[in-house]
Amino acid sequence: MNWLDNNILTLVTFVPTVGAVLLLFFPRRDRDIRVFALVISLLTFVLSLHLPAHFNRNLPGFQFDKNVAWIPMPNIHYHMGIDGISMWLTVLTTFLTPLCVLISWKSIHERVKEFFILLLVLETALIGVFVSLDLFLFYFFWEATLIPMALLIGMFGHGRRIYAAVKFFLYTMIASMFMLAAILWLYANTNPHTFDFVAIQNAIQSGQLANLAGAARWLFLGFFVAFAVKVPLFPFHTWLPDAHVEAPTAGSVLLAGVLLKMGTYGMLRFNLGLFPEQSRANASWIVVLALIGIVYGALVAMVQPNLKKLIAYSSISHLGFVVLGIFSFTQAGLNGAMFVMLAHGVSTGALFMLAGIIYERRHTYEISEFGGLATPMPRYSTFFLFIVLASVGLPLLNGFIGEFLVLSGAFQAKMWWGIVGATGVIWSACYLLWMYQRVFFGKVKHEVNNSLPDLDIRERVALWPAAIIALVMGVAPLLWLNSIDPAVHNALVPFSQLASRLVGQ
Amino acid sequence: MALQTMQTIPHAADYIRILPEIVFSLFGLLVMFLDPIMDERRSQRTLGGIALAGAIAALAATLYQAQAHFWGLGFFGMVKVDAFSIFFHFVVAAAAILVILSSYEYMEVQHIRAGEYYGLILFGAVGMDLMSSAVELVLIFIALEISSIATYILAGFRRRSAISSESSVKYFLLGSFATAFFLYGVALMFGATGSTSIDRISAVMQEYAGSGHGPLLAYLGVALMFVGLGFKVAAAPFHVWTPDVYEGAPSPVVGFMSTAPKAAAFAVLLRIMFEAQAPGRIWLIWVAAALSMTIGNIAALVQDNVKRLLAYSSIAHAGYLLIAIASLPADGIPAAMFYSASYAAMNIGAFAVVGHFAGAGERYVTLEDYSGLGRRSPALAAILTIFLLSLIGIPITGGFFAKFYVFSAALQGSHPLIGLVIIGVLNSAIAAYYYLRVIVVMYMREPREDTPVPPIPAGLGIALGLSLAVTIYLGVLPGRVLEYAGRSVNLLH
């Protein structure tokens, strides 16, 4: 058991890559490739369940720690570890990947091998981002997510896929250059030089970094820009709708479900963790951007004629909640932000799967092409309704808990933050339910839609887990919050110290 | 006086100190000798095999030479074996091996006569090896000429093609002009310091450094030598020849001449700039580096010919490498050495793919021709993708650490080159776009059916496998190579 505890993070991270390498040598028989990819992704999921099962929430700091020297010069360590925050994001990734494999079963029929190899490599990179505790390793995985994702969009996407893939790649790559610069600065100014997150955090908190005072603002911004583009925070969001609309379904699911959370995770871990004072100093304008994102994303979503674009803009709105929660610096706000991340991953992932299912049947995302689908596809519309309600934030489903916590945190921080944020809940009900009405209710407007087949068994297998989790998260949020709460508490320690110091003066 | 009489006859160990050069020369002579007496149709493979054996033997000779008791000066203080020279000997020999392997089938496809081709690669390698171990400016000049003349001829080897001849003539004319500048610089340096030995120059420079003012002639000498070397490494503003020459020359040769002679020229530059403590280093190189990166990358954005695109990219990479030479020696020297090694691996690999894909007469070299390569030849496309990602500088490839070390070297010390690093980082972002264009075309465009893709032959396969392995190795475990490169810091400084 001890060996497993030591190496579990390495296993979870690299089992998908091993699977991808094995796939390289697979014969080009599509069915076998799919089954194998499913087995690998399920195996990864099962392995990752070891983490919550053996996670000790009474311990502060990082667990399942693995720290070995990798490259002596520069001093790079292979350092992995998780706390309550990164653990659940890891599990979210491993949870969504098998669903992605299932949902791509039929829709990918050309270059199947390449598709699943890229999907598995992407999974490794995503998990790596969450479990890395060495800034270099983190940056490596961060950049590594770009290539498989851009290729997934560019090779398997729809119409303007090349434009979307290149835009996605360049946007995020250029932004992360700033983060790299900040990381290198931290490395050069620590003594002894280190990329270790924990060591750098300690050095900053104990004031060992000599030149920090002048540079902190730029370092904060360097990290922040990279994360803000990824989230995406208004006004850095323009790559997202393009990427989503053109991406294949599995790409969208992982993009919305996990990739965007890399940004908010980064803010939580690095911006707050390393630069608490700067976070406080910059919070006001960041929250304003988040609020603009909430309202703007919702309003733009409302008028989208394209189903996928609507969901994409709803992501901008939801991720605005996460940023709002993070920069409220309250226990409730941060807990809520974490919970929204997970809930959004599940429900928006499921929404994209549902959109993909209808696309497979009709090859269009235009809402006007549908209408009255509830009659020919009762099961599909039930699932859709359930997920829409979860996403809207109906109590007892997962969206509600997170948004409620975020808003209560925002109200604690500043009244008007909460008020503006709360309108977002109303907006999301508007655009999602209106969309639902236009797609599923009324008479069947187009003859083709009458003969659409309902969900088959594979699609139901892909959707059930998401629906069940959405319900469980809504009914028993403590299962998650129990381990999130201590980690969030840790993250906020410097802030309470900061506050008491300010009061003391 | 006693010293001089003692040294009229070289020691036996002196020959070990030029062992790789001797091996290269012997095998080169053997190839040239066998070429006329062999049946032309069957000579290709045999001569290739001999050349390959020669390059491997030179690699072994380098390893033999690497034993510590052979280190030191030889031939009356003209050559020096140290970690630095061994590193570059290794790079040159490895580059020669990869190029010979990847030329194997290329020669048959292009109907190129093998004899002189392989002979010239080996003779060129002699010059490059000597460039990295010579510590005497006149010998450096001779080595530079040996390596240059071989590459001038190699550039024109596609005799049936007009652009290849154009390439050769252009390279020759501009190249001789540039070497003349170098020689002029050597003369001025001699005038300024009274010696052509790098050790002696270094001592004189230190005296001047003590008295506060350096000799004007020395500044001029360094600047002129830099013109000559800047031409060899294709650094702006001496880069104008590069795209035309690279476009016309045979692809494996481009792979060779964009890496091995460049590495050797950088070795000379490092010796002159650091070991001889040349004055006026930083600004000279600052400007050249900034210009090379910017001009190279921006011009590459609009190229539709893959060879020209890679030519401009190679100008840009010379710029990144120059950043290291403008940095402090402690970090700059290993960074520059690491960069030349990793650039050699990825660029030879990329040109090997390009050469193979180009087909007879190098017909398929435009970006359009690469459409859908990912579907028509998944292996070739995947390999080229990895090389291109390395050229972009994506982690787990050698290109990433190369850039990383260069930038972090530039940020060390009390006067970090922040401006240069910013220009470099912005340039790497621009560069991502055009490398990505190739990847996009390969994977995301529909294939054009009229361009056939021959299967990968054995020799090329081995060459690609090796360069891929080196690229990935340098990207995953760069520690050992960097540590070895770091050993030469004290020797040079």
Can you walk me through this structure?
With 505 residues, chain A is mainly alpha-helical. Chain A has a domain at 276-505. In chain A, 76% of the residues lie in helices and 3% in strands. Chain A has helices spanning 2-24, 30-53, 84-103, 112-131, 135-144, 146-156, 161-189, 197-205, 212-230, 239-246, 249-274, 276-302, 307-326, 331-362, 378-392, 398-413, 415-440, 447-450, 457-475, 478-504; strands spanning 63-71, 76-82. Chain A has a two-stranded antiparallel ribbon with strand order 1-2. In chain A, strand 1 (63-71) and strand 2 form a beta hairpin. In chain A, helix 13 (307-326) packs across helix 16 (398-413) and helix 14 runs antiparallel to helix 15 (378-392). The mean pLDDT of chain A is 88. Chain B is mostly helical and 493 residues long. Chain B has one domain (2-492). Chain B has helices at 2-6, 12-17, 19-37, 40-65, 83-110, 114-133, 137-155, 162-193, 198-211, 216-232, 242-248, 251-257, 260-275, 281-301, 306-326, 329-358, 373-376, 378-392, 398-410, 418-444, 458-476, 479-492, and strands spanning 72-74, 79-81. In chain B, strand 1 and strand 2 form a beta hairpin. In chain B, helix 5 (83-110) packs antiparallel against helix 21 (458-476) and helix 15 (306-326) runs antiparallel to helix 16 (329-358). The longest helix of chain B has 32 residues, at 162-193. Chain B is globular, with a radius of gyration of 22 Å. The chains are: A mainly alpha (505), B mainly alpha (493). The A-B interface holds A 71-74, 111, 114, 139-140, 143-144, 147, 151, 154-155, 161-162, 165-166, 169-170, 173-174, 177, 180-181, 184-185, 187-188 and B 374-375, 378, 389, 394-396, 404, 407-408, 411-412, 425, 428-429, 432-433, 436, 440, 443-445, 477-479, 482-483, 486.
